[in-house]
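Hi,

I'm pasting everything inline rather than attaching a file, because the server keeps stripping attachments. The sequence lines come first, and each chain or strand is labelled.
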Amino acid sequence: QSVLTQPPSASGTPGQGVIISCSGSTSNIGRHYVYWYQHLPGTAPKLLISWTNQRPSGVPDRFSGSKSGTSASLAISGLRSGDEADYYCSSWDTSLSAWVFGGGTKLTVL
Amino acid sequence: QVQLVESGGGVVQPGTSLRLSCVTSGFAFSTYIMHWVRQAPGKGLEWVGLMSGDGTDKKFANSVKGRFTISRDNSKNTLYLEMNGLRHEDTAVYFCARNGEGDLGQGTLVTVSS
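And the predicted assembly:
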């Protein structure tokens, strides 16, 4: 199983907000930056959040990242049908000397 | 702007070798640790390995250790992934990524099939 733990699924209705969690440990999220990726079917994963809470150029401010202790969160506001995708969190893990990922959360916009 | 362009993927038989390339531009390549990440069909993202900016340090995931190696040519702003002893389970889209910034390329598909 994945080093970082994400819920397998999340859902919301258009216009609503949703929060996707990512749980780790003191070896990864607790001491390193967190990154979030959006993966739409048939495309390459897209970087949504870097440095825990920074949006790369072109990413709407509806997407925001944060962390507290050994957990991180991706918040999406004003849900749109185009937000339906798989979302992955990631971080460096000092104990494993590896870049680790969550198993992904499939977001459904109802 | 920053570009990461992978190439070299294809269909290969188990046990054979393949070399992937990642040509970069738009940033100071030699100053960045670079990673390879892969995604098997229908699966999540998996880290493959990394190389330091000066090429002196490398780390690999246990799943590829001893079979894959990474190299780079800083004069060509290019990162390589040499894959040996390929297995069916290595079938995936392979991405290069920039450490710290987290951006990925578009990927190149490697299919290991007999």
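Chain B has a mean pLDDT of 97.

If the labels don't parse on your end, tell me and I'll reformat.
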